[in-house]
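TL;DR need structure tokens for one chain.
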Amino acid sequence: MKSIFISVPIALTALSSAAQETVDTIATQQLQEIVIAAPKVIRKADMDVYHPSESAVNNSKNGMQLLRNLMIPTLSVNDALGSITSGGQSVQARINGREATIEQIQQLLPETIKRVEWIDNPGLRYNGATGVINFIVSNPATGGSLMAYANPSLNSAWGMYRAAVKINHGRSQWGASVNYKLANHLSAYREFSESFTMPDGTKINRSEKPHGGYLSDSFGSIQLDYSYIKPDTTVIWVAVHGYKQLPETSLYRSLMSESSGLSNVLISDFDSQSGFTPSFTAYLEQHLPHKQLIAVDFNGSFYNGSTQRTYTEEEDAGQGTAIADVNTAIKDRNQAYGIEADYIKNWSQSRFTAGINYKANRNRSTYENLGNEIFHQRQDRLYFFGEYFQRINKVTLTAGLGAQYTSFKFKETNQGTDSWNLRPQFTFTYRPNQIHQLRLNFTSWQTAPSLAETNVVPQQVDAFQWSQGNPDLHTSQSYMLTLRYSYDLKRISGSFGIRAFSSPDAIAPYTFWSNDRLITSHENSKGLQNLSFWLAPSIEVVPGWMWIEGMVQYRAERMKGTGYTRYNHDWSGQGGVILQHWGWQLVIMYQRAQRDLWGQKLSWGEDISLINLEYNRKNWQFGASLICPFTKYDQGARSYDPYHTYEKHIRINGYPMPCISVSYNLQWGRQRRDARKIVNADGEVTKSSAARR
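>> reply
TL;DR here they are.
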């Protein structure tokens, strides 16, 4: 239910971009009356490097738009979800080597982006990422830069606002940025029907008729950072960040009728979560003789927040007897600390990397609805690895092995598990020329149980359902094998490939009856396997004027757990038309979200469409958009559990939603390279969540 509030502002900025003009397909340099032409992409052994052209920069007002303008084959800037994907898999975004959010990408000035590195076979030091996009940014040696952006809706209390400033002097840079997203009481409703099969075999069918509701998801953040760079010697980067989640709430009301004879039952389902998360990051990179370097990164965060849920069922449209009355209130004071150290040694055709990473989570949850009972959970993860890269003519090989130790314990019950897991990885790449590339990649990773999946506290969901974590879960293992062919012709580029995935002990929900309660817990299942095929073309229809791009994917998967085997076959993808000329850009797109099977539930993100028109002039950009102009917004889930089958659709009123946007970018001073982090410690804090339908 939250996705629309995050995705829409990103969609508006991401979709506003367009492709390069024909002259942008090459970079030219004139020397003594000789014109030297080079491809727009430089294919290195372990990455593809893209240098933005002048028109790509001029037609962009932030990093997300510039990335879309580069038209990188196989890479999809997901206009609806505000994410970056490749072949249906999420891509990790970085700025000068350090991991970044979509909001931080949007704060980048296109003029400061010197190149974009696309790594579609990231090694073990990227901690399981399926792809990495890295923006290499430089800033003035003296002077600075300023960016401001506003994107309000015209018919609802919704909008995205941000600003960033950087001041430079010599080897030092000071930066400050703020973000604010407004999404307050947007009119919404839920379509819901379900069926319960009781322990004695009796079936109860329940159907809900929407009776109003709303969604809210406003937040603000601020960051102050400082960097010091002594070229090829020392890099220091420190930052403090604060994130304030204003009450993220949802309220759905409906009138329910039940096959047992009940009718006109008023259901009220309310969720809310709010809190403040300050964090601190410090990074040091030191270069040593003989092409060696050591990099160390520290990250710490603290979360102080609360989660609430109220669910009621009342007869006679709220005027009669209460059938169900559920109240959950949790206060969290959670901490997370992470540190990573890497050693890298480079030779002319090879590279060796070794590293160690430690993360600690300390969670303290107070259940106010249980008489302020307190629960403590401790999570520890230790990971170390070694990896070797070698280039041999047109072939490159990468092989590595990592090992991860995971431990989590509940203080009050002394329950928990410890485990060791290996993480092998291998990549073979054959590139006969700059046009064609064939890559075979095998990777593996571990997934530790979350706080919600292991928490032993029982939570009531509705009149029938309860939820309770399983502290005996252990870390699951995942394996993925990908074969990808990429091509980059004069006016057609893209990729197609096949991906096989297996998680033999995937953590998944399962249900069982305990007296008159239907309990949902989690188990290490008998496994999830899927096979997907994708085709992602990009075609320049009219040089410099019109482009068509998209991605289509077929996915077949099977999941097995306690008492069930489920299958899913699904088509998904997105497509768009981009028109550009005389400073104007028009983008029309549609996306059908991928349907994912997990346990016995099929869920999907947002099916969405968008029309966006923008005009660029000097440092300004003006835009107008329509969200869902010719489709109905949909996000939902479907359950095939024999004890509890249901279908749910989340709808938003007020569509098509008209929006406008204004952006202003300014920079001054000589350019130099900014601080580049190549190591990122994981210090993300975890949060409790109330059980819900």
